[in-house]
Specification:
The chain is of the alpha/beta class and 276 residues long. It has a single domain, classed as TIM Barrel (Alpha-Beta Barrel). The chain is 36% helix and 20% strand. It is built from nine helices and 14 strands. It has helices at 27-40, 60-73, 91-94, 124-137, 148-159, 183-190, 208-218, 241-254, 262-269, and strands at 6-9, 44-47, 49-50, 56-57, 78-81, 104-108, 112-115, 118-120, 140-145, 168-173, 198-203, 221-224, 231-233, 236-237. The strands form four sheets. Strands 5-2-1-12-11-10-9-6 form an eight-stranded parallel sheet, with helices on both faces. It has a two-stranded antiparallel sheet with strand order 3-4. Helix 1 packs across helix 2 (60-73) and helix 1 (27-40) packs parallel to helix 8 (241-254). The mean pLDDT is 97.
Length: 276
């Protein structure tokens, strides 16, 4: 079985210090949380960025500042900027971090009702636009899917040349408006993926660790972090992203799964080797 790639989603666009005081906003806090996750065993940092007051932004300069600061501390980590941004942002606003030509970036494959009047809009043309831009810039997309229909969309656009092989999916489960995080639903999504693809599972809230275990056993990969869940266990706030990663590492070891380092993660995902 392949080694386990752990992705740490260190802050997201919605979670606040009111939910957990360790949620990072500033450059220094972002570096602290990225390093805590890396030191614990994460190979990928899934990155949203904030202004110092916690406001989410897709500003290219802010991404560059934080990416450079993280790379100074942990030069070989894979940094995966989000192109999801926040509800209400334009396509070009969301795409700003791709101008930095990261190794990977997220590509959301459908529209979702986040709750109330908030709709996370990703039209077919938006997905095509993002896919084409990532091909032009040599960026591997992580195909974020929140339901079965989004897998189908990704497969259709792959056939049309907007998404290239090898495909890598992120099964985001338990989000309001998307598929739940029950094991039944994991099995359904998992068996809807192409045999030659790879996948990561991101369980939201209480689904984080049960789905992590399912992916560990199945041979998939795992995402954890404050974006998805701020608790280490019921009622116990995690002190850092590193604590969440450490828990996954312990689970993997119990199941006999070794943890991939960044070099091994690049090989598994078909990324180019890191050049010094």
């Amino acid at each position: 079985m392949e080694k386990l790639i752990i992705t740490a989603a260190i802050c997201g666009a919605e979670v606040l210090k009111e939910h957990n005081p360790a949620v990072p906003y500033t450059v220094e806090e972002m570096v602290r949380e990225a390093k805590s996750a890396y030191d614990a065993g994460a190979s990928i940092i899934h990155l949203h960025v904030r202004w110092d007051d916690g406001t989410p932004t897709q500003d290219k300069g802010r991404f560059e500042e934080i990416i450079n600061a993280i790379k100074e501390e942990i030069h070989d980590v894979i940094i995966q900027p989000s192109t999801g941004g926040a509800v209400g942002m334009t396509d070009d606003e969301r795409l700003q971090p791709t101008e930095l030509k990261p190794e990977m970036a997220t590509l959301d494959c459908g529209t979702l009702n986040f709750g109330g009047d908030e709709v996370f809009t990703n039209t077919e043309n938006t997905i095509k636009y993002f896919g084409k831009k990532m091909i032009e810039l040599g960026i591997k997309p992580e195909l974020e899917v929140f339901d079965k229909s989004m897998i189908d969309m990704a497969l259709r656009l792959h056939k049309k040349g907007f998404i290239l092989d090898p495909m890598h999916f992120d099964l985001v489960m338990g989000v309001n408006g998307g598929i739940t995080g029950e094991l039944r639903d994991f099995v359904f999504l998992r068996h809807s993926l192409p045999a030659d693809s790879t996948y990561t599972v991101a369980g939201i809230g209480r689904f984080e660790f049960p789905l992590a275990m399912a992916a560990i056993i199945d041979g998939g990969h795992v995402r954890v972090g404050f974006e998805d869940n701020v608790y280490l266990s019921k009622g116990v706030l995690a002190k850092s992203n590193g604590e969440l990663v450490e828990k996954v590492v312990r689970m993997a070891k119990e199941m006999g799964r070794q943890i991939a380092n960044p070099t091994e993660a690049r090989q598994i995902l078909g990324l180019k080797p890191l050049t010094k």
